[in-house]
Amino acid sequence: MTLTADPTPSAPAAGAPAQERRLVTELPGPRSRALMERKSAAVAAGVGTTMPVFAERAGGGIVVDVDGNHLIDLGSGIAVTTVGNAAPRVVEAVQAQVAAFTHTCFMVTPYAGYVEVAEALNRLTPGGHEKRTALFNSGAEAVENAVKIARAHTGRQGVVVFDHAYHGRTNLTMAMTAKSMPYKHGFGPFASEVYRAPLSYPFRDGGLDGAEAARRAITQIEAQVGAANLACVVIEPIQGEGGFIVPAEGFLPTLLAWCRANDVVFVADEVQTGFARTGAMFACEHEDVVPDLIVTAKGIAGGLPLSAVTGRAEIMDAAHVGGLGGTYGGNPLACAAALAAIETIEADGLVARAREVHALVTARLGELRQRDARIGEVRGRGAMLAVELVDPASGEPDAALAKAVAGAAHRQGVVVLTCGTFGNVLRLLPPLSISDALLHDALDVLEAAFAAS
Length: 453
Ligand code: PLZ
Known about the structure:
The chain is an alpha/beta fold and 453 residues long. The protein contains 13 helices and 15 strands.
């Protein structure tokens, strides 16, 4: 279990935890158990946790818990710490900023960091057109603002989203999210003027190709909403919570072409796919899709809360002065972190590292699939990877197996997440600062978990 970390482009700084899986207590250990008891007494029951294990320190590919256990991180705090936890440049930049000033509110006395993040996003996002950016705090808040901007620009109200979509937990984004339990159940009524269209889901589409799947969606949109009533189409280029579903080639470009022809704003929700995660800076790039608006969050700022809407200047500028904002949007600490995270991605070649992670992990999971027919599909791009688990006889989703394998991995010190409308997808989202040795060790644990489940 104890392995020497091999050097990676963004090897953790001195002071980072030892890069090895190390269990010194059962999981959860006594300190975590005591904290879980306090959590139950102090924190609202609605706030769940994947593992009953409390973190104390993290870096590279390791999370250290309060009992001293070293866990391998295949979750990155749900695709957030792509550059690594407490990444050295992020720590340094935030420390300098926190000592200078913590907040003034950009809408009161602005500061350069916000402008610099906007400039970086305008440069990095797909398309050479003139762009503008506005900053917010969470993914859901940015999605809401993309819809506001699209409505202001088009003068129309309709919003089209897709089966299996996840866009957040606020009222409008709950309406946009597909899955009822746990996200929406009992929390309605939901915002109106949100319409759902069928997605391209190659594993379950019976051979429908991308263009055909797009035609199916467009036919439904034209019949049930009408382009003239539609402000925007909002889509995750690879669905995250819905099951790491990569649409068939041609689906996104066909949809985009229809939006262009009908003056409908095409919004890419790259909250989970963004910032080097998929082996490109943004997942849209894999099919040369240039969205009108792109929503980013999570990996943008190395763990500090920041989100953004970036897009065509004429659309972004449609909202009246004072129409967009919020007390904390583009907080100076988060902006400093974002600039350092972007610098880390570029200086450490993390887009290329995501592709290396892809090659290593898919080779191992592909071998496993040859031996285990319950793995219906291995899919994903870059370091956004998943296996969909099924009953081999019927092809029906096997959520119980996903839960059992994840549980077994957790007990052995590997942080792994599940997802999917049917709960039957295991997803891997390692930080790009993880070593090959840790990836191999984590995959050994997963293999053993499959064998035992
Ligand atoms: N859009 C594509 O993946 C957040 C949700 C975890 P916030 N996904 C993780 C949970 O159970 O709450 C997400 C996403 C996509 C929007 C969001 C919302 O981002 O920062 O959580 O609001």
